[in-house]
Amino acid sequence: MAHASSYQPTSSFGQWLDARLPVGRVMHDQFMTFPTPRNLNYWWTFGGILTFMLAVQIATGVVLAMHYVPTPEGAFDSVETIMRDVNWGWLLRYSHAVGGSMFFLAAYIHTFRGLYYGSYKAPREVLWILGVLILLLMIATAFMGYSLVWGQMSFWAVTVITNLFSSLDAVIPGLGTKLVQWIWGGFAVGAPTLNRLFSLHYLFPFLIAGVVVLHIWALHVPGNNNPTGIDVKGPRDTVPFHPYYTIKDGFALLMFVLLFAVLLFYAPNLLGHSDNYIPANPLQTPPHIVPEWYFLPFYAVLRAIPNKLMGVIALISSIAILFFVPWLDTSKVRSTRYRPIYKWFFWVFVVTAIVLGYLGSQPPEGWYLIFGRIFTAYYFLFFLVVMPVVGLLEKPAKLPGSITESVLGPDEPLPLSVPKARQREQVL
Ligand code: HEM
């Protein structure tokens, strides 16, 4: 959101630099005085948490890579060496593995927050699209990272997922097989595959970091959405980012890190699969190949469709459909808070995503498969039918006159706790 800069460098070096490369000014204007809606709730703290988690993953990953050996003979043992012989190696490795789960937890909460409050609607479409791009990059990165352990689940997950490309044989015979062999660098998952997965797993987090910069830039042009979904109408509706949201984000981050620490120190393997402690064996397929928990809903969608090519198309569509959400939702109102009918469909969608996650962890047979199909159908109907149709038919509830009104009520006097200078500004 454009606002006048109040940055005044005090030191002569600060003034010198400001005239040449105004990084201090940009940081001050974008992260100190940036006008932020006064009513943001705790769901708005996850962007900062995600930024922190990205930094944790990069920092721990870079040091892990110093000890990791990307060969089929060395990979599994090097991970065990990190766990047992490298100083603080267990902490590094568990922080990175549990950190991956925490990163996805935060990303899903952040995405559902955006869906609930309509943060994808104009003028924030590009911001949303960049977010979906980050999600795709995160999925690719986590998949490649998991393969590096070279345990049974790693190896067979790579085999299953890379094999999906062979479904293209149904379009052009031979094309899929050629593509898979090109990805593998041979006729089976092996040394060249592992080496390229390692190389790309190292590269992608830096691509994510680049897209995050664009994401935050695209956020700071229109400014934040807020729980009411209505636009900022004047200075009364906002507070400076610092100290109001630095404190709130800091507190939320602390709580999040506490949860992270509980998992990390008391149950580091809770979310993992025990089969990944068995070294990869290309001659023995595990009875149930399951991905990490954060991929399970998509895995359920893949297996709900009996045809391989159609299953792959459904899998890709289940994520790609998010790109089109700004145009699928026809409602004039952003926040679901004021959408009495859509609200129900939204919560059924949340339940659907969780149930699909459970179904993805079960064998694709009997009732699991039938429910998998029903919930997959609702997953797509939500985007393709509910969003456009309910948006047109529903009569939204009455919106508050302004963000301030939604916080203080229509005729509330300003609270005494508001400092004198701010009271004056708010009365003006
Ligand atoms: C590495 C991953 C990500 C990082 C570091 C990140 C960072 C941020 C930050 C710092 C904010 C502002 C604070 C907040 O609203 O929480 C934000 C806002 C936003 N993000 Fe993300 N984000 C990430 C992933 C995503 C994803 C996956 C999506 C959606 C698919 C997304 C969609 C949005 C939207 C729509 C907003 C605007 C929220 C609003 O103002 O209402 N982001 N992001």
Q: Can you walk through the features of this model?
A:
The protein has 428 residues and is mostly helical. It folds into two domains: 33-274 and 283-289, Cytochrome Bc1 Complex, Chain C (Up-down Bundle), CATH 1.20.810; 291-397, Helix Hairpins (Orthogonal Bundle). It has 17 helices and two strands. It has helices at 12-20, 23-31, 46-67, 75-84, 89-116, 125-147, 152-163, 175-184, 191-220, 241-266, 296-304, 308-320, 325-328, 342-360, 366-393, 403-408, 420-427; strands at 35-37, 238-240. It has a two-stranded antiparallel sheet with strand order 1-2. The longest helix has 30 residues, at 191-220. The radius of gyration is 24 Å and the shape is globular. The mean pLDDT is 95. It binds protoporphyrin IX containing FE. Protoporphyrin IX containing FE binds at residues 44, 46-48, 50-51, 54, 107, 110-111, 114, 117, 119-120, 124, 127-128, 131-132, 134-135, 208, 212, 215-216, 219, 224-225, 322.
